[in-house]
Design a protein that fits this description.
By secondary structure, the chain is of the alpha+beta class. It has 7 helices and 8 strands.
Length: 181
């Protein structure tokens, strides 16, 4: 059987027989015969599975003004964007951070901008990056803090900063909130 090159290319991309027939103005039975001749499996209905976690992420975003990415996929119970891939649910913020920083995030990830549910990789921050950025703001504003410990003796590893650069102790804040942080 003579198989058209354009039909073979679209079959290898994973398109359905009917979609190829419509796109190339040919009969779907001709496309099905070409699929069998090439030894390709039947097309299964539904979304084509993503080849990677990154591909699953990019399939669910939309670029909007200001360099932000709007999340179009599902959200979890906590209203956080979620990427499902191979049966596991992943935080879209963590995936965005890995894409943008080429490393695993440390601690909680969230957007560093004010756009709701922005998943732009360049806007995603982990605990380490947020602390470093806010500490720099703290220093630029000329604020002083104890480098060794808070007033209750918690070490410097518990130091956190508010978005406006004020230093506070993460362990003390967690104790005040009853462990909800």
């Amino acid at each position: 059987m003579k198989i058209r090159d354009d039909v073979a290319a679209l079959l290898r991309e994973g398109l359905s027989d009917r979609r190829i027939a419509k796109q190339l103005h040919t009969d779907h039975k001709t496309v099905a015969a070409a699929r069998r001749a090439l030894g390709l499996p039947r097309h299964l209905p539904g979304r084509n599975p993503a080849l990677s976690l990154e591909e699953a992420f990019w399939a669910r975003v939309e670029r909007v003004e200001g360099g932000h990415l709007r999340w179009l996929g599902p959200v979890g119970n906590n209203e956080q964007p979620v990427v499902s891939y191979r049966g596991t649910r992943n935080s879209a913020y963590r995936v965005a951070f890995k894409i943008g920083n080429k490393r695993e995030p440390k601690g909680h990830c969230q957007p560093g901008c004010e756009y709701p549910r922005c998943v732009a990789p360049e806007h995603s921050e982990d605990e380490e990056l947020r602390t470093r950025t806010r500490a720099a703001l703290h220093a630029v504003m000329g604020r002083q803090f104890r480098a060794d410990a808070c007033g209750r003796g918690h070490g410097a590893e518990h130091r956190r900063f508010t978005p406006d650069g004020l230093a506070y102790c993460g362990a003390c804040a967690k104790a005040r909130s009853g462990g909800r942080r």
